[in-house]
Amino acid sequence: MKETIAIIGGGPAGMEAALSLAGRGYKVYLVEKTDALGGHLARWDRLFPQQDPAQDLLNEMIGKVREADDYIEVIYGTELQYVKRRMRGLEVMLSNQTVLQVDAVLVACGFDLFRAERKEEYGYGIYENVLTSADLERKFKEKKVVCHDGRTPQKVAFVHCVGSRDEKVDHTYCSKVCCVTAVKQACEIKELYPEAEVFNLYMDLRMFDRYFEQMYHKAQSHFGVHFVRGRLSEVSETVDGKILIKTEDTLLGRPMKLTVDMLVLMVGMQACAATAELAEKLDLKVSPSDHFFETKDLFLRGNQAHAKGIFLAGACTGPKSLPDTLQDARSAAESIHRYLTD
Ligand code: SF4
Question: Tell me: the pLDDT tens digits for 34-54?
Fold first, then answer.
């Protein structure tokens, strides 16, 4: 067997990088802090743009990791404690006291979702029928898309850019995937409840990738989803548990009031909670503007950290769609291979 690599994080990026490295004959320790692989993917129902079941992709990836058990050892329920540089390679100490001697470390710790409670004015955690996009996805997965009191939602609004492009929460960046997720979820509500009225309240629509624009057109022409350009100013609850939204249609320049059964907040991505601690342990740089890990450069060294022998993959360096995350993971594996063979 060739050299050994420790991968921190068993989400899609960690698994895909592990498979790429195992395919080249490297030994991989895949270190996952929970007791299951998959990260956020394990909590998702269907994937944009073609509504593929998330579970199918997850099962396929986990199946491949298991098949590659001669090369990939998954270590569950543990986290990185420290890394020491040795004459040759790195010594990685885990929180379960395992010590790994490795030649490179790949950080693939992913992202956290923005905590919607921080935008108190949107009523999350206060009003029962205000949900996040992740809460709604869980309802789709459980096949129970109903209001808190069990009613079928007749009117649903999606609010874009919650915790993204927002100076007040120090997240001025775009999270890239929440526009397309809102369109996907709006179409899914209409598939379930064709009579429901569905609104998307957006700042700008950023439908940047393949098939996204088609989804947006289908949402309007086939499903009749309404798109209103405007930012939410106030949310309150009516006596019958509905949600009253005050906004402004910025295209028409008119204030607008809307009462809905369900309000869905499209929460953005933020650097995962472990970022600052990992940065200290591994001598990594964190961007002062978005708080994600910084790579050596954005062009030819987009998976290299500033510290020698440490690499980065997936959404720990900034918001990414799932296809981009997987591609980035393969690219990180290639960078590690070049580092070990040059
Ligand atoms: S992808 Fe859309 S909803 Fe998400 S932050 Fe960017 S503009 Fe806002």
Answer: 999 999 999 999 999 999 999
